[in-house]
Amino acid sequence: MPFIRYIMLWGLVFFCTVTTALAQGLMIRNYNVKDGLANATVYAAVQDKDGFIWFATPTGVSKFDGKRFRNYAKKDGLTDNDVFKLAADTKGRVWFFTLNGKPSFYDKSVIHSEANDSSLIFNSRSHYMQYAFEGKAGYIWFLNTNNRIVQYTGKKTIYDKLGASGTDLFFLIRNDSIFHPLEASFHVDGLRDPNNPSQKIFPVCPYPLGDPELLTRINDNAVVIVRNALYSYTAKDAICFLNGAEWGIHDDISHICIDNDNLWVGTQRALYYLKGFFKGERKVIKLLDNHYITSLLKDRDGNIWITTFGDGVYNIPYKNFYFSYLDNTNGLYSHSIFSICKDKKSEMLLIGQNAGILNTIDRNNNIKQFTLDTTTGHNSVLTILPSNDNSVLIGTDNGLYRFNTTTQKSLLLKAVKMLKDVDISPAGKIRIAAKNQVIALDDYTIGDLDMLVTSVACINDSAYYVGTNTGLYYCTDGQKQLKPAGADTLRKLSIKDLKWVDGYLWIGTSDQGIYVMHNDSIVKHLSSANNLASDICQQLYYDGRGRLYVATNRGVSVIDVIAQSITRNITSNDGLMSDDIRGVFNDDGILYIATSNGLCYFNGDHIPVDTIPPVIYLSNIRYGDSTFLPGHDFVHLYKRKASFEAEFGTIVFDLPELVQYQYNFSGDTTNGWITTMSNIIPFPDLQPGSYKLMVRARKYKSEWSAALSMDVNILPRWYQEWWARGILLLAGVLLILVVLRYIVRRIKQAEKRKTEYNRRIAELEAKALTNQMNPHFIFNSLNSVQHLILEKEEKQALNFLADFATLMRQMLNNSRKSYISLEEEIAFLTRYLELEKIRFAHSFTYHFIMEDALKDYTIYIPPMIIQPIVENAIKHGLAPKNISGYMEIRLEMVDDLLYCSVDDDGIGWDKSNSIKNSRLIKHESTALSVIKERLQIIKSFNGSVGKLEIIDKFKSGFGNKEGTLVEILIPIVKML
């Protein structure tokens, strides 16, 4: 809010130090350069259609909304900085008058001139515009300094043919049916119009000033100013309705303003307020003495604007006309008021001030000043109470006085140090609260109390309540002793004032608001939570008509004592001089309020309340680093991390600092409103989309205004479009799939390498196990050779060795392979069996049975996996048998596995094991354990599950057959 200076102005100055004529004071605001005004010299003021006030200055124009000035100069589009006059038409345009004669105007946030608007191109021929009129067709007519009429049609600016000859100002105002003036008054040197010789001039008004017809005529026709006289001008006659000399106005009139029944007159030396002029009243108040008044304006709310030459702009809010003010500038001793009272009989107003001063104002508005308390230090006049006829009781810091309103003499009744309060019983008994004592005047004193006594309230002639800084007490004249009263709550309070009203005690505290007590019980507590102006109560006043006034440090609260509720608060926002209230008095509806800044009085039931919502407008839009002119919608391409800001304002000339805003970005008119005191609404990093911004405002005690809405559309960049996002999403998914595929591929390759590595290890282990079996077979074969030699069978031994060498070569070849063909395995087994037959003297026979299906494929099996089983069958099954044995080797396909069974009719598995166990030196055969281990290793790298099972036929249900059946499932590789 711009800094505003308040000035108290008055009508007449003091003519002596004791007596002066009372005049109504007016609180006037001053706006100057430091508040944002373009220049301290202001030529003219006008209000546009939207409600803004415009000011013309030598350095540009200022647009004012009540809170801030927006200044425009040549750099903003003006044709010249020196603007001496303004005019506002019905289309909302504000026209600027400059000395270069070039027309220009402001419309829809843009200054239009010949630089940007071809319709304003015009050759002024070194003459400038003086007056502006508006025609019925919306044309604007100007009269320039060459008495030529210039017409603006909206498409071009031209010299009108009417202005060729015989035209002047009188021609335009005489033809008011065609030309409607855009200003309030016109200056002329004389009234004689050579082109209208039949016009009559009345230097004396034929109408009485109170005649409504005169006011109607003045409002409907042009007003011309001739030096210090005012005329109502028509083509028929010119009537003088103000002769300045008769009203004490001797200077030339510079401007006028008609305000209902009042008339404002500005001159080069002062401002004159003729209150009730059109009611026939003769009240002249001289304001702004030694100020050059350049123009006057009454805005649509009733506020008065006064422009000056060198002193800025003055403003008188409309509501201030409902109030009257008194302080040290217009009759009082000082601006600090402590008490107020009015004597009903003499109608004398008594005002208590500091320094022991009592000011009185009689029924003729004469002010007098009396000094009561002459002691040093604190000696303020604290309380004034009506006593008996023609007298009042006055309490000061140092004593109690009686003041006679007829003789205007004072009498000291009792000197009392630190007097705080005085009350009078119905029969006139006086009780005094002072420091640490209670005094019943002319009766007794209760002194030396260990508490600070602050207030007293009489119940009747013999009983009263006493308020202290430590609670509430009760006393009677009979007991003459203070006793705690009320509930425990009241015994802990710091009490400021008491008031007994119809059986109820109202208790004002220093920090807890108001308590109401009835029959020693608290029945009500009112505080700031209940809308009390403040919890700090400074005085209670009862007007005898059901209303209790509470003076606080934040205004006055009015309480209905019947309903015990707060009806309203009155503060400086309503027009008081200060919120620091010391006292209140009501006299037949006129409310007097004593403040630390003067006395304010007004009709308490007719306080103006402006409930009309304010006008809200869009100032500008900022997006990123750019600022845009306001509009109904805003469309812009998305900027990354750019803040969207909407700046709003309201046109409020009274209490603009109390304006509240609400905004809503959801488009919901019932919910989602956010309240703020800031007029800038930021939305950081606004994402692409369509939004509806709504803003509304309210001022002091008004409702919310209608919402101002704006559509905001942030367009997405190409990469924010759905198709671009779809492509990016698809590309991202494909990239992820490629990465995942690469990762899976790497994992599979790693697993493959690991599997290959493990398979290779398994093969090596299998080969190691195969090689582990070779020594076992070689050892058994060499034993057979040894046996043949010992048996002198040298030829057989040689044949055996030859076959053994062939077998060994075949075995060594097979041991280097992971797989060998089934045919190779059978050939190997056959050669091996033949050798074993030789070794065991042909004590057994054998037979191979191979399934026909095996002949269709080439079958590969691990080497040396059947041979150990055959070897065990011969050695442990057939060899111990006393008769010739038989072995059958069967080969079949079972589920992609080679089924091999070695069936012998030897002594059997269990009997063979029992024979081995009975030997002193046990021989542990490793063949079967090695086969099982090889099958397990083959499974680890091949995945095929092998199987080895040994069956004792006699024990396993093969009838009486003896022998052993060994079944093995061997993983194979099958090829066509």
Automatic annotation (TrEMBL):
GO terms for molecular function: phosphorelay sensor kinase activity. SUPFAM superfamilies: ATPase domain of HSP90 chaperone/DNA topoisomerase II/histidine kinase, Calcium-dependent phosphotriesterase, Quinoprotein alcohol dehydrogenase-like. The chain crosses the membrane at residues 722-744. Residues 765-843 form the Signal transduction histidine kinase internal region domain. It comes from the Bacteria. GO terms for cellular component: membrane. Keywords: Membrane, Transmembrane, Transmembrane helix. InterPro entries: Bact_2-comp_sensor_kinase (IPR050640), HATPase_C_sf (IPR036890), Ig-like_fold (IPR013783), Quinoprotein_ADH-like_sf (IPR011047), Reg_prop (IPR011110), Sig_transdc_His_kin_internal (IPR010559), WD40/YVTN_repeat-like_dom_sf (IPR015943). The keyword Thylakoid does not apply. PANTHER family: SENSOR HISTIDINE KINASE YPDA (PTHR34220:SF7). This is Two component regulator with propeller domain.
